[in-house]
Specification:
Length: about 450
């Protein structure tokens, strides 16, 4: 473990030492011979190096470039070279993805709370930052939102109060600039894969609005998953430096989002996705699962039964079908423990953000969850050792951490997963586009 920590710290020190230099570090590949039950682990980290170019020019004819522009342009060039040599989904293998798809209602935080003030006679200044496990009313929404907003941390919370949730949705719909988009981990991943030519079957319920948003390469795993009613998730977004109160008492240190959803009323369609995978087994290349955060607050026995059903599905997969599990923010330590026990040991790969990695790490080491989150600015040196320690306790072959600060993959050398460099490059560019809405050589260090 000291070896991994030392390599990570060394990388960060080397990056910092380049400040003021006309050099740029785009991707560092760090390999460490770490003993994980006799397996070797390769650690690959993509980081935008902290390099300041000031008035330095790359050549006499080049305009001054910021570090963001240089990193961006180099990434784009490397991505284009890779695309010339490798065609995504060239084998045309199907991908089965479950279990959550929905319609996202995306709204700016300031505009939403302005509408909430009009409807509930509340002002953001009355909200003291305080974390609630669930959001039942406007006061709890304001308090919980302000707690995570002040850190710039992402979080997802459930609303058991259906009447209040409908009220918030109505206020969001009436807010200027609000828009609907395809949402849910499963549906978003399906769309991304479908857009590069992969045929996908989606194990998720889909309402009429969601079905209109699905890519042509996506089909539902079973006709019974079609639903007349859409599941709406409220995505409350804010930018870096935005204010939550009129007196600037709360300002966001970075751009992020607060997600509010209704309590899950439907069970995850495990059987429907499993049946499709079995029927198309020779044509299936991968299975990707997500959506288990919706078990938060569900009865323990019913939850365990469903997780056992998922584990049986994963164990039934033939060796030539790879599997990936996408973790999500959960408020119950026991749910993290249940997922670690019943699902993760039978999945080849896991994806998570820095908050979820820290939470899973705490649970696996017998510590309670931090209700206020784990900070908005993770470092490579703090996150990478946690990944390796998780892999010491769970027989995962690959773990991908995705944050707005950096991307990292820990991968067992003997596994079936290919060189992760391109995965990291794509992930870095995708997160940049998602966070900043655009990519341009004119971007500076404070663009988003």
């Amino acid at each position: 473990m000291a070896t991994v920590r030392g390599i990570s710290s060394c990388f960060e020190s080397a990056t910092s030492a380049l400040v003021g230099s006309p050099c740029v570090v785009i991707c560092a590949r760090m390999a460490s011979l770490v003993n994980l039950q006799t397996s070797l682990v390769s650690i690959v980290v993509v980081v935008a190096a902290a390099i300041y170019f000031s008035s330095t020019r790359l050549n006499d004819s080049s305009p001054p470039l910021t570090r963001v522009a240089v990193v961006l342009n180099t990434h784009l060039a490397a991505r284009e070279l890779y695309h010339q040599k490798h065609k995504p989904c060239s084998t045309q293998k199907h991908v089965g993805i479950g279990y959550v798809g929905n319609v996202d209602l995306i709204v700016n935080a300031q505009r939403l709370f302005r509408a909430m003030i009009d409807r509930h006679a509340l002002h953001p200044d009355v909200f003291t930052p305080r974390v609630h496990s669930k959001v039942n009313d406007a006061q709890q929404l304001g308090e919980t939102f302000s707690a995570f907003f002040s850190q710039g941390s992402a979080v997802e919370k459930f609303c058991p109060n259906a009447t209040f949730f409908r009220t918030v949705v109505a206020a969001a719909e009436a807010s200027h600039g609000a828009s609907f988009a395809l949402g849910g981990n499963a549906a978003i991943m399906a769309t991304r894969l479908a857009s590069v030519g992969c045929p996908v079957f989606l194990g998720s319920y889909a309402g009429s609005q969601m079905k209109k948003l699905l890519h042509a390469n996506i089909r539902l795993a079973d006709p019974s998953l079609a639903s007349p009613e859409d599941d709406v998730h409220l995505i409350i977004e804010y930018g870096k430096g935005e204010l939550f109160s009129s007196d600037a008492a709360l300002a966001s240190p970075r751009a992020n989002r607060f997600i509010l959803t209704q309590e899950m009323e439907r069970v995850l369609p495990v059987a429907q996705l499993a049946a499709s995978v079995t029927a198309l087994q020779s044509q299936v290349g991968a299975v990707i699962l997500s959506g288990f955060h919706l078990f938060d607050g569900q009865p323990s026995e019913a939850r365990t039964n469903k997780l056992v059903e998922v584990s049986q599905f994963l164990k039934s997969l033939p060796a030539d079908i790879i599997s990936h599990f996408e973790l999500a923010s959960m408020s119950e330590a026991q749910l993290y423990a249940d997922v670690a026990k019943h699902v993760l040991p039978y999945s080849s790969s896991m994806g998570a953000n820095e908050q979820e990695i820290a939470a899973l790490h705490d649970v696996l080491h017998g510590r309670p969850l931090n209700p206020a989150g784990y900070g908005a600015f993770p470092s490579v040196g703090s996150v990478v050792p946690k990944i390796v320690q998780i892999m010491q306790k769970i027989p995962l072959k690959r773990v991908h951490v995705h944050s707005l600060v950096f991307q990292a993959i820990c991968q067992v050398n003997s596994g079936r997963w290919p060189d992760p460099s391109y995965s990291l490059l794509e992930a870095t560019m995708t997160s940049l586009i998602q966070a900043c809405s655009e990519v341009s050589s004119e971007m500076d260090d404070h663009h988003c």
